[in-house]
Amino acid sequence: MPEAAGPEGAPLGLCFAGLHGFARDVTDLALAEPRVRVVSAGDPAADDPAGAGRIELLRAAGVDVHACFKAALAVPGVEAAWLPVPISLHRPFGEAALAAGKALLCEKPLAGCVEDAAALVHAAAASGLPAAVGFHDLFDPAVLGFKREAHGPGGIGELESVTVLASWPRDDAYFGRNGWAGRLRHADAWVRDSPANNALAHYLMLGLFFAGDDDLVAATPVAAAGRLLRAAAIESFDTVSARFALGPGCVRPGVRLDLHLTHAAEETLQPQVLLRGRRGRRLWKLEPGDPDFAPADRVAVSCGGAAVRARVLPRFVDLCRGVPRPDAPYATLGAGLAHAHAIEALHAAAEVEDLPAGCVVDRPTAGGVQRVVPGLLQALRKAAAAGRLLDPETLGQAG
């Protein structure tokens, strides 16, 4: 029997990789979850005096803190591992956890390349252990309900296309926050950091998931075309306008997914995902107050980021305990692999290019400077609504 299969009513013994940043936030979530016991944590920073206060707090809560993740995995009582760590560590830490007999909750994205994502899928299947990816919207029952309604009787009919649109402005402090932000490779591994593979990856995943042919399936892209653009002084891209042809796992052949994401606009537009079918349209939105970028017959609004994130750990506990939840989805490693195929297809289809210099301006922010393109969001909205891709050469003419 896999080590993670403990008694249904017992708290799940959890090990964390990481102590600070996002790891701090999710560890605090776990400490507050009655169905979980945080047994251990592993981070090289455990020996750093600057983090002594945090480590003291964790140890006071009964957490065994180590400077080595494998040592933390070996603490008695650990049944599962959560990996809120840099993308370059997802494969080695995930494989280590599974090899040690622990269930796995890997933060999104699953990995920085298809090879690493596929290796984790294989390792999880070989282990027989529960495994999931932290694409938190896929843990929301309302998201599964939206998908079922759209493809069910009285829904949109045969799906023709999916469009994802979002703008989250980010400044140079964001890209300078660690050693891998805005990078294609880090620590001898692919990370391919970008809006599509990090901050806004959740919504590309939603688009793939809504096109999937079963409750837990995300469609896998087989080809892509478009533009990978940057305003910021980074190696990767901060803006993408691209089209995917969807293949395995899609509800029908011939469906396309259009993706329009940016960190370089002046304005914020919370994510929206539009499904166009032969009989109708459905729109999913993160924020109810934002105007719809295109008309739809029905609109669904997320219950909010914090509320959705709070569903991840209880659902993962159910998964580890073998509790059936047919109406409560989660993000499988197979879905994470579909997302990795999307990212790899983007980079195979286009080189990263600078946005036209004449349309990029510096704007001061509270944390530093953001390199923005006035009119970029309006241009992306128009492209998304019209079912076409952005032509960056026209941006100098935008408002």
Give an overview in words:
By secondary structure, the chain is α/β, with parallel strands linked by helices. The chain has two domains: 12-136, NAD(P)-binding Rossmann-like Domain (Rossmann fold), CATH 3.40.50; 137-391, Dihydrodipicolinate Reductase, domain 2 (2-Layer Sandwich). Helix content is 30%, strand content 24%. It has eleven helices and 18 strands. The strands form four sheets. The chain has an eight-stranded mixed sheet, sandwiched between helices. It has a six-stranded parallel sheet with strand order 3-2-1-4-5-6, with helices on both faces. Strands 8-9 form a two-stranded antiparallel sheet. α8 crosses α10. It is globular, with a radius of gyration of 21 Å. It starts with 11 loop residues before the first strand and ends in a 13-residue tail after the last helix. GO terms for molecular function: nucleotide binding; oxidoreductase activity. Keywords: Oxidoreductase. This is Gfo/Idh/MocA-like oxidoreductase N-terminal domain-containing protein.
